[in-house]
Queue: 2 jobs
Job 1
Amino acid sequence: MRPFCESAGVECRGYSEGLQRAMTDFGADEAFAGAATKLKEHYGIEVPVSAVRGFTEAHARRCECKKK
């Protein structure tokens, strides 16, 4: 067990809630590749474009379900 991972609520190679929020925020504003670039520029974190896309689209689907 990794104490930091447990206390931070993240899994190895996982995405914290805060990182997911940043990916979704940037991903909603511009192209997914640009959002990945912004994450690197602002936070120094490299994430795959596919991760930005996946979390942004998943969040959008949850928002659509709430509207119905």
Job 2
Amino acid sequence: MTIAFAPSSGRVLQASVRGRDAFWVAPTDSSGEPSGWNLGGDRLWLGPERDWFWRGAGRDDLANHTVPAEIDPGNWDAVHQSTDGLDLVLTATLRDRNTGAETSVVVERHVTVQADTRYVAEYETETVLHVQSGQPVDAWSVVQVPLGGRLEIGVTGQFSFRDHLPGPVDPDRFTVSRGIAAIDLFGLHMTKFGITSETATGLLRYTRPGLVMERHIDARPGGDYRDGPYHHTGDVIQVFEDDGHYGGYAELEHHSIAAQPGETVVDRCRTVIRAT
């Protein structure tokens, strides 16, 4: 089996094709266990980040940032697991780190394996987010990949992006041709940029030697992707590039439309990994 799950943390931990791993995963200690919350793989977070993760107004001060255990690893219940997929449920109470206000959510996460062979691994993830009470919440899907690859993003119209960290991305790093904006991710600087729902078409393709991973997401315009401090209304795709400070990886992220209290939002993503 080339697709490995980590049910207790609600994620696809790894997908491998011809012995090549698609995702970044955390190194383990002498007991074989990773240290800290950052396991890697393909996981789900919940936004807005400015409320659950950050304290105070210093939104570029990482000392004020804490990953809440209610979100990662979370208390996921594996309803069903087989070689064909995984069904999970998370019930959580989120707390605003500044006001203490509580928001109650129920999340279903369904991972269905479409193909798992020597040459291709493919799965579809459906996330059903229901906000029972409190404030709006969005589903924030994150896949961590090793550095050293080329990222291609499907775009339409005039390509533009916006920076979300003090160290800006050099626009000359992008090449844009025939609806694809491409950038090499080598981790020379810590950066994060976002692309709005008006620009993104829903394709993320990451290529490294011998392996290509594609993410196909719903990037319909008009959604309210409210996830700060870096995430502003309109960002459906965001890319974080670590400079080695956190372990040396890139994060390919996409955000659903926010669910209002009493509402449910469904987000779907198809991931395909192929040998090249």
